[in-house]
Amino acid sequence: MRIDILTLFPEMFNSVFSESIIGRALKNNIFTVNCINIRDFSEDKHKRVDDYPYGGGPGMVLKPEPVFKAIQNVRKENSRIIFLTPKGKVYNQKIAKELSKEEHLVLLCGHYEGIDNRIIENYVTDEISIGDYVLTGGEISAMVLIDSVVRLLPGALGKKESYMEESHYNGLLEYPQYTRPREFNGHKVPDVLLSGNHKEIEKWRIYQSLKYTYLRRPDLLEKKELTKEEEEILSKIKLNFSNEL
Ligand code: 4FV
């Protein structure tokens, strides 16, 4: 996978690509990345990239010309040109999985009040929002997308790491995790996890996953096809926790 990032602040990405899992995946050529400064495509003598909004109003707007040239500079036949914006479809693990199958992602990071809409209407393939709040720029949103997509690429997660059982992977919230010591400040690890009885451990984990999802994200249960066994466990949970919702 190749990722091209169109931004006014390429240096903001330095740490993302030098550390931990994403840094290692880059070193192992599991993906390639290129940060492009939109200002380099401004033919304005002062390298301006923003201007006043037509119709008046607060703030500035990113001009179409430098963004168009930056996009044309990297765009390929099968490129997904993604504009990070609060007006986009709200990002989730399903979209992350979908994008992880693409060959070329172009991430367009906005700034100011936004970008000239003719770029969005004519040259952008996807508008994605990482959540219903407003940031100062699209860079952090692009980092969220890169981290959540690259870790799904084959070979990105080492042996010890896996995304097979994590929250949202199977549409449910993950069961709680524990590690040594067995007792910490008087707080014990659930006995079942020390039992070595993998069948009982699996049942406990399904129960916990369904319980947390029922109590914290019942909306996820509406979208999730449950097995017969999971349905039975969930009805017990509803009995036990009906008063907690
Ligand atoms: C955002 C979001 C976001 C809006 C104005 C950048 C800012 C500024 N991007 N999900 N929420 N972008 O707040 O993706 O240009």
From TrEMBL:
Against InterPro entries, the record matches this protein to: Alpha/beta_knot_MTases, tRNA_m1G_MeTrfase_C_sf, tRNA_m1G_MeTrfase_TrmD, tRNA_m1G_MTases_N, tRNA_MeTrfase_TRMD/TRM10
Q: What class of enzyme is it?
A: transferase
**Which cellular component appears as one GO term in the record?**
cytosol
| Superkingdom assignment | Bacteria
Q: Recorded E.C. number(s)?
A: 2.1.1.228
The reply to whether tRNA processing figures as a keyword in the UniProt entry is yes
Which stretch is the leader sequence? none
Q: Which reaction does it catalyse?
A: guanosine(37) in tRNA + S-adenosyl-L-methionine = N(1)-methylguanosine(37) in tRNA + S-adenosyl-L-homocysteine + H(+)
Q: Which compartment or compartments is the protein found in? A: Cytoplasm
Going by the UniProt record, its keywords in alphabetical order are: Cytoplasm, Methyltransferase, S-adenosyl-L-methionine, Transferase, tRNA processing
The primary site where this protein sits is: cytoplasm
What are the recorded GO MF terms, alphabetically?
A: tRNA (guanine(37)-N1)-methyltransferase activity
Sites binding S-adenosyl-L-methionine sit at 110, 130-135
Q: Which Gene3D superfamilies does this UniProt record tie to the protein?
A: 3.40.1280.10, tRNA(m1g37)methyltransferase, domain 2
User: Which intervals hold domain tRNA methyltransferase TRMD/TRM10-type?
Assistant: 1-223
What are its GO biological-process terms? tRNA N1-guanine methylation
Q: Which family does it belong to?
A: Belongs to the RNA methyltransferase TrmD family.
> What role does this protein play?
Specifically methylates guanosine-37 in various tRNAs.
PANTHER family with a match to the protein in the record:
TRNA (GUANINE-N(1)-)-METHYLTRANSFERASE
| Binding partners and assembly | Homodimer.
The name on file for this protein is tRNA (guanine-N(1)-)-methyltransferase
What organism is this sequence from?
A: Caldisalinibacter kiritimatiensis
